[in-house]
Specification:
Layout: H1 8-21, H2 24-31, E1 34-36, H3 42-62, E2 71-73, E3 85-87, H4 88-98, H5 103-130, H6 139-161, H7 166-181, H8 186-194, H9 203-233, E4 250-252, H10 253-278, H11 284-287, H12 306-314, E5 320-321, E6 329-330, H13 332-360, H14 376-395, H15 398-405, H16 409-448, E7 450-457, E8 463-468, H17 472-478, H18 490-494, H19 508-521
Antiparallel strand pairs: 1-4, 2-3, 5-6, 7-8
Helix pairs in contact: 1-2, 3-5, 3-10, 4-5, 5-6, 5-10, 6-9, 6-13, 7-8, 12-13, 12-14, 14-16
Length: about 550
């Protein structure tokens, strides 16, 4: 869109800054910067606004929380725990909940914002993945996003453990068991975090430093870098009328985008405030203080750690004794669940843009997003990964499933061990067929129009439904489809006859494998129709005649 005349507020502000900082041109240029618009872009803003709320509520909580494992006797206003010995950290968390004005609201808002922060990043990352928005030139921003998600999991783990209640202590015990099982570095990491044998006297203070200083500082730096790159590169825009890789169709940052962002921040803040006020979460006073000898039944972590919990519960009890009974022991039943699922998901996310470019040979810049159906293999891979994650997440509550549905705990575990391998394959196959079906539907709409609901009788007695031409904006959205690129010479590399002369890079076992992957992954699966349908006048326009008018089949 045309930016037109610079609004007076921008011109006045620019002049003020230009007189003092020489930044007038910078302000004028950037405040009128045009951004594409789509509802899915707001998913990333949920994570950003949740992070801001986390910083605000977390700052409030630091004024009252005491990160110490010093033994105290509780003398606060919560009668059931009065006179009970506990850590100073747990006592201060109780004080925040019952004796600090607005403390419980801030605690619960902080917890809800943490959940929404991680969930927002996950959904935003899925949007970027399924639309191919990670492609050149946005690979670096994608890697920053993967690192942000990893750090957010660590930030949630450290914060969840700070109150030192029985539930978080049980999770901390699992964390210690996973850390100490790591080969070579496990003992060092455990002593670094706990300051000695579990539970030690330093874990809360050290987690507190990680939670409020180190990890938030890194998160803030990465989010700033993420936003700067997004500002320079802008969002990918969805395919549509007049949208290409060489232009941006949207609204300027000021006032349109700024007003929308401000309103959406207030909406996010309101939702989190309502959840903090009316939806109880993490009632630590019901769990009691942590003691290593106790554990509550049905303990469950926050949702973002559920898949690691599920991996631990599904893993078979394998271990390897090195050099006989006198050597060390590798507890594979802990190492594999701790490292493999996280490694598959995070490493796969980080490498995918580069693997896809290696397979397709596509080195072009992309500023128009793809509809998920138009790249069926990528969409199927994404759904398979979600299914893998979902099975692990669900089986992290296998004891609750067993108790609720009155089935054997062993059988839930056995079924989970099968599903974690079989379900992603089934999900891949189903998703691929759905994507092809949706592509066929698009081709039919382009070729024949849309159903109008008008029934017409042909001269020979047959009844048909008249189809109307598709709206121009919808047609442009569909025609934004491009064939998934394939490597030049990939088909020739697979031929065995004299006509097959593949490029040098596609010769040999690795080259042939790359060629096979390229031809399978890329190419046009279902071409869009050229507008000429088949059958009985199935794309005739509404109003082409009455019931007695003859119709000509195409």
């Amino acid at each position: 869109m045309s930016t037109g005349t610079v609004p007076k507020p921008i011109a006045g502000t620019s002049e003020f800054l230009d007189d003092r900082l020489g930044a007038g041109n910078f302000m004028r240029r950037n405040l009128r910067k045009v951004f594409p618009d789509h509802w899915s872009f707001l998913l990333g803003e949920i994570a950003l606004y949740s992070f801001i709320i986390l910083l605000l509520t977390g700052t409030f909580l630091t004024f009252f929380f005491k990160p110490s494992m010093e033994h105290v006797v509780y003398a606060g206003s919560y009668d059931p725990l009065r006179g009970i010995g506990m850590s100073a950290a747990y006592a201060s968390a109780l004080e925040i909940s019952f004796d600090v004005r607005g403390g419980l609201l801030m605690r619960q808002m902080h917890h809800w914002a943490a959940l929404l922060f991680v969930a927002g990043m996950m959904v935003h990352m899925l949007r970027v993945f399924f639309t191919g928005a990670y492609r050149k030139p946005r690979e670096l921003n994608w890697l920053i996003g993967v690192l942000l998600l990893t750090l957010a999991l660590a930030e949630g783990l450290t914060g969840y453990s700070l109150p030192d209640d029985l539930l978080s202590g049980a999770g901390l015990r699992i964390t210690e068991g996973v850390a100490i099982s790591l080969p070579l570095v496990g003992t060092w990491i455990t002593f670094f975090l706990f300051g000695g044998e579990y539970p030690g006297e330093d874990v809360i203070s050290r987690f507190y430093s990680l939670h409020i200083l180190l990890i938030p500082g890194i998160l803030l730096a990465l989010i700033s870098a993420h936003m700067i790159l997004m500002w320079v590169q802008k969002h990918t825009q969805m395919p549509g009328k007049g949208r290409t890789n060489n232009n941006v169709v949207g609204a300027p940052f000021y006032p349109a985008f700024m007003a929308k962002a401000g309103a959406y921040f207030m909406f996010t803040f309101g939702v989190i405030a309502l959840l903090g006020a009316f939806a109880q979460i993490n009632p630590i006073w019901l769990f009691g203080p942590y003691t290593p000898a106790d554990i509550s039944a049905g303990s469950q972590p926050d949702f973002y750690m559920g898949f690691l919990e599920g991996a631990l519960r599904l893993m078979v009890p394998w271990e390897v004794n090195l050099f006989g009974t006198g050597g060390g022991t590798l507890p594979l039943s802990v190492i594999i669940p701790a490292l493999v699922p996280m490694g598959i998901i995070m490493t796969g996310l980080a490498l995918y843009p580069f693997l896809e470019r290696w397979i397709t040979g596509d080195n072009r810049e992309h500023h128009v997003a793809e509809r998920p159906r138009n790249n069926p293999h990528r969409t199927s891979i994404g759904i398979a990964a979600i299914t893998f994650y979902g099975v692990l997440w669900l089986l992290g509550a296998n004891d609750e499933l067993s108790w609720t549905f009155h089935v054997s705990l062993n059988w839930t575990t056995y079924v989970g061990r099968v599903l974690v391998f079989v379900a992603p394959v089934i999900a891949y196959a189903i998703t691929y067929r759905i994507c092809l079906g949706l592509q066929r539907k698009d081709a039919a709409i382009i070729g024949h129009g849309v159903e109008s609901g008008v029934i017409k009788r042909l001269p020979h007695g047959e009844y048909i439904e008249v189809h109307a031409p598709v709206a121009q904006d919808i047609e442009a959205h569909m025609r934004g489809k491009e064939p998934v690129p394939t490597l030049p010479g990939a088909e020739a590399a697979l031929k065995t006859g004299p006509d097959g002369v593949p490029p040098k890079s596609l010769r040999g076992p690795v080259g042939k494998l790359r060629a096979k992957m390229s031809t399978a992954y890329g190419g046009e699966k279902i071409p869009l129709d050229d507008g000429h349908g088949h059958g009985h006048d199935d794309h005739a326009a509404i109003g082409a005649g009455g019931d007695d008018e003859k119709s000509t089949a195409h």
